[in-house]
Amino acid sequence: MSWIKNLVRISQTTSSVGNLFRNHESYTLSSRFCTALQHQQQQQSERVQATEVVNGLEQQQQQHRYEGLAPTKEGEKPRLLVLGSGWAGCRLMKGIDTSIYDVVCVSPRNHMVFTPLLASTCVGTLEFRSVAEPISRIQPAISREPGSYYFLANCSRLDSQNHEVHCETVTDALSTVKPWKFKIAYDKLVLACGAEASTFGINGVLENAIFLREVHHAQEIRRKLLLNLMLSEVPGLGVEEKKRLLHCVVVGGGPTGVEFSGELSDFIMKDVRQRYAHVKDDIRVTLIEARDILSSFDDGLRQYAIKQLNKSGVKLVRGIVKEVKPQKLILDDGTEVPYGLLVWSTGVGPSSFVRSLDLPKDPGGRIGIDEWMRVPSVQDVFAIGDCSGYLESTGKSTLPALAQVAEREGKYLANLLNVMGKAGGGRALSAKDTELGAPFVYKHLGSMATIGRYKALVDLRESKQGKGISMGGFLSFFIWRSAYLTRVVSWRNRFYVFINWITTFVFGRDTSRL
What we know:
Helix content is about 40%, strand content about 20%. It is α/β, with parallel strands linked by helices. The chain has a 7-stranded mixed sheet. The chain has a 5-stranded parallel sheet with strand order 10-17-11-12-13. A 3-stranded antiparallel sheet has the order 14-15-16, with no helix packed on it. A hairpin with a 4-residue loop joins β5 and β6. The longest helix has about 40 residues, at about 30-65.
């Protein structure tokens, strides 16, 4: 009888379920589907609204970022904007009176490079920090004063009519931070953005050669040089490939190319032969120059340099590079020169930013200036250093792209702007009637270059045809080191350089590949 009772219970349950489906107040299958679809559409709509809100916030943030620094107001100090942190820009910032101006610097690097000693860092004679001077040490007001700043950015456009500069941040290709744009209003603008290495349109230079103008260039040269040395000792490497890896080629016979060749030959003779004895006889250095090396020096000094470089094992080749390939370069006569390390040092030319500016140019493509470093076609804009050159209307020839030229231009312009500011001409469009004083006059102080083996050249003549002291040898090497040690910007870096020289002399160069 129990099974009859169970059957009755099941029938009752079934009927109740049927009643549930027949109940109009209950959910049907179709109504549940429609409700789920509506819920999904509502979630999608909320997501779209959230996305629009986020995009709006990003647009507002981007717009806020792009606002940058507004024009200065009454009661505020006039704003001096400096584009660049090279010799000219840093000397200007060092000499400017920060009680008159707020100083804003825009540059892709936050330091100045002491370029005369840069070649020494490639082989470990000096540490990299010894030749880098932070901008905040050169001009402390940038990190202390509320209206003075340093911005890690590149300038993308100049709006001289509105006294604005458009910039874009430098993020070093970080995937987590996207570069953004901003603009800076200025009262006085100084273009000191320097120049870039000249490739003369030769195919393959940018892709395969390493320049020697920045600290990261020296770091790349050092890492590649030590890598080639270590790989050449590993078994399984062919003889020809080993010779190629150990062949260092320098293109350009100016002071930078000759100094690097001399430093490299010292490194090979004093350190490589002791610590890489298995390959000491295979490493070579070749210096390629289209004309004469060190053409600005006295003929007697040039011959002395050639003799010393030959003694150091540097091979001098006269020729013009026609094409550069990943493992070899081709000269104009068809000669193929295999290389493991290629350093390009053939001078400088106007940068892409300078070429893009709608400003008058000198015959070489630099920004045209008058005798007071002003850009005549626009107001409150000045240009100094390697990016500038005299206009033909001045009757003066463009000065060479040398550190001493840029430094003295920066010093002159700092004094000029200080005088203008004290006379009430620091603000935008307020210096028309200001007395500028004497124009800039450059006097050449001479040239120096080290050639290795504790030898150097010192030429103190004002010109190649002028009279003065010109000498070579160990005494010149002592003068060279003494002069540059005193020219290093800070006492901190002078101490670094001096200690590095002593350490290298006593213990040799460091060959760690960090």
